Model the fold of this input.
Amino acid sequence: MQSMTLTRMFILFALVTLLATGCAKKAAMDDSQAAGGTQAVEETQMQEQQISSVEEQAVSDVAVAETEPAMMEAETLVRKLTRIHFEYDQYVLTKAAQDTLYANAQLLKAAPALKVVVEGHCDERGSDEYNLALGEKRALATRNYLISLGVPMDQLSTISYGEEVPLDMGGTEEAWSKNRRAEFTLQR
Amino acid sequence: MKNGRLFLVIVALLLTSLSSAWAVKIEISAPGEQEIPLALTSFLPMGPIKPEIAQEIDAVLEADLSLSGLFSLVDRGAFLSDAESLGLSSVQVDFAQWKLLGAEAVIKGGYRVEGDRLIIEARLFDVVARRMLTGRRYIGKLDEARRIAHTFADQVLLSLTGTKGPFSSRIAYISNRTGKKELYLMEVDGHAPVRLTSHRKIVLNPDFSPVGKELLFTSYKNGNPDLFRKEIYTGRESRLSHRKGLNIGGRYSPDGREVAVTLSKDKNSELYLLGTDGTIHKRLTNHWGIDVDPSWSPAGNEIAFVSDRRGNPHVYIVKLDSLEVRRLTFDGKYNATPAWSPDGKRIAFSRLEDKRFDIYTIKPDGTDQRRLTFGPGNKEHPRWSPDGRFLVYSLDHNNEKSIYLMRADGTGTRRISAPGGDDSHPAWSGHW
Done:
């Protein structure tokens, strides 16, 4: 069992490193395509990227072995937090959502070091601005309910993405109901 | 009859020099009511022939002037010899020929290339009075024929109605053509789109400064939806507000000294006024409901906004001195994205009706509601041209978002954004 987790971890770590370098290259290419007018901003971004790649090389094997499992564990835990759904133009928690949050609260209380972002999302109908405000109400309603169940406040932060990050682009009633949600990601 | 109409206009224009308030009263700025028969001749070479330049000027002028709805264009096929003559002074123009074709106004012009400079002469004549109404010489770079033609179209509208056209202004919008939502800028007819940001996150909801070449928008660049300001030509960019929670819907006041914005730093979305340094000048709303989407009255003393304080989202108006709030819309179950017209007389907004959003306008006192758009797809985010003649909006249809333009009465609808991406949230600049 243990050796298997270790191997998995190693593979994941390798993948993450690969992804990170891949992203940096892609970003650098995008910079050269940017409109002339945005150069001042782009320069600072380029510098930041260079610094981060230097840091990557400096990290020792020991340090990696110490930090990575904690991150991995956190990732695994956050994935166990089930997302909840909302009715159209509502931020009131349904009975089903409350039940899901009860289970989530037990997980969060068992892992007090775990810092989580509650994301509020909406379906794409209606004003984007209104949906940003509605998404925030959903995230806050979710956070407040978890706190009422005994989850420490400082474990939970919120952000609204409005209608900007849909799960399902289908444009059907079914897709819309999937998109009206609050979900949980690791605070970085 | 027709002749009489243009004659009236000219009399009025003569009076304009005496009393400028009079010019505004000529109601030919209302499209469709009285179309002036206009002969738009091809621009002629004043030196070596460059057909691509002539074609570009002709096409832009024709598109702009027909979009204005003020003219009926005389059939080019019927033109007589004067259309081929470079006589650009009123004594040289054969007005009798144009009168024969029923034209009341004629546009003539010529172009010349001198090294890397393009020189364009453009003139508008009154056929009945046999005189020049406006004449302009433009000197620009070789690739500026399009821009010059837009500028002359603006001048033609100014000359005939007392109000400059909007054709040389710009439209900012949001597009996902790179895979991420970024801020773009294009000409009013959709030409020359340029990407202004590369945040690679989510950029939302632009607004133009009324004074400088500057835009406001919201971006998740730093993780939170923060309000950014960007100078268009220098590319200089800064965060105007990055309070915890939402910093969205930034809208410059008409004098450019303040910014109305939605903040949720106290866990609920409320409207605030910020200074241009980002400090809070005033809180405008105080209600547990959602308050978003501010739009300034042109006088700068009131702001229309969207709130669900009575249940469904509706448009309300807040007075800035007393903070007194009144409700503007009562019909429909979802009213959003209000936009106050530049003359202050109407507020455009989008309303959900029969499972579809359409654009409506209403007077600020809540009377005279009119529906402007019909047909499939959701139409949202209306914004006025600086002269109030047109509205630009986004249409979401068949899983594609694109930007459309129409006259303020809902006629003349045309798509201006190119296919191949989702384009939305247009904002119209002031005169450029």
Notes: The helical segments of chain A are 2-33, 39-58, 61-79, 95-110, 128-148, 173-179.
